Amino acid sequence: MNKIQILKPDDWHLHLRDAEALKRTVTDVASHIHRAIIMPNLVPPVTTVSEAQAYRDRILAHKNKTSFSPLMTLYLTDNTTVDEIKAAGDSPFVVACKLYPAGATTNSDSGVTDVTKLDKVFEAMTEAGLILCIHGEVTDNDVDIFDREKVFIERHLKPITDRHPNLKIVLEHITTQDAVDFVLESSDNIAATITAHHLILNRNDLLSGGIKPDYYCLPILKRQAHQKRLQNIVLESHPKFFFGSDSAPHGQHKKYNACGCAGIYTAPVMLCLLAEFFEQHQSLSHFEPFVSRYGAHFYNLPLSDESITLTKESWSVPSKLPFGDDEIVPFFAGKQLSWRICDV
Ligand code: DOR
Ligand code: ZN
């Protein structure tokens, strides 16, 4: 097959950052992504509806003539109030709240220190029909970084789902067999996003033969058996597992230093990479449900009425891209991709 046309995809987990960065990050998705869940981990974080609305306006200023639609999220803290959740439920723009355990990842210092104290907030979210997006990793230094997702599921997620069975939850950017099993065993209110990079890479790519800062992200890449489980569930095309890129830009000087930031900038290549992934596994027909259908269904939103076309045409990914007053190295920099998105 040399051409595929699919409904315009959604990205159910995207970092756009703010200010100078928006020119790059919004442009890199706006023409081929219909809607995106915009992560709120700015500095300071987006914790109120009015901040989310102002942030949305700054994003929209860069969408040009595209139909790109940012779906906003609130960042939960120890001080999030039930009133703010109610206001979020009334807002046409805010569709979800993001739970970052404090210290789990980039810009999560204001995150939640004790999830057991959020019951009132979770009740208000259930009432308001807001979705809970979770960065599912414990932060304890005595838990091995490769086990943090599994331990979070046992210690925190299972109790949350037991106490709040009607709350819709997306376990974000899952990386383990444990997460796949948990989502499969849970009710239809529990789903998961999967990134392109966690499908394509495992921890050998990060660590074997030299450390690759460009492949450092959180949750950290896991061993191959976990990667295979993610691949299989996506290739089987299961509606509880849909695409969230977690495309997360960091300027080169923040990534390549003694304490490099976590995050992989996949936005310019993610759909082409996924087309290649599905094609290599003789499953191209499962590409569209993963990127354009299952997430909309879970979020109870209509499917896109636009489409995009990809053609079989080789191109090389730029080695660097301008990023404010810095540069950014996109995922797959300098490598060849075999699918290209046609200009609209
Ligand atoms: O690798 C990551 N980068 N994981 C996250 O959870 C956050 C993200 C970021 O914001 O840079
Ligand atoms: Zn993220």
What oligomeric state do the depicted chains represent?
single chain
Tell me which ligands are bound: (4S)-2,6-dioxohexahydropyrimidine-4-carboxylic acid, zinc ion
Radius of gyration: 19 Å
Give the integer mean of the pLDDT values: 97
The chain-level structural class is alpha/beta
- Spatial order of strands in the largest sheet: 2-3-4-5-6-7-8-9
Head-to-tail CA distance between termini: 20 Å
Reported for the largest beta sheet, the result is: 8 strands, parallel
Number of strands: 13
As a percent range, the share of helical residues equals 25-40%
Number of helical stretches of at least 4 residues: 12
Low-confidence stretches: none
Sum up the overall morphology in one term: globular
Q: What letter string, H or E per element, gives the SSE order?
A: EEHEHEHEHEHEHEHHHEHHHEEEE
Strand content: 15-25%
How would you sum up this structure, described in words?
It is a single chain. The chain is α/β, with parallel strands linked by helices. It has twelve helices and 13 strands. Helix 3 packs parallel to helix 4. The radius of gyration is 19 Å and the shape is globular. The two termini are 20 Å apart. The relative contact order is 0.15. Zinc ion binds next to loops. (4S)-2,6-dioxohexahydropyrimidine-4-carboxylic acid (DOR) binds next to loops.
Task: Describe, in short, the structure shown.
This protein has 344 residues and is α/β, with parallel strands linked by helices. The chain has twelve helices and 13 strands.
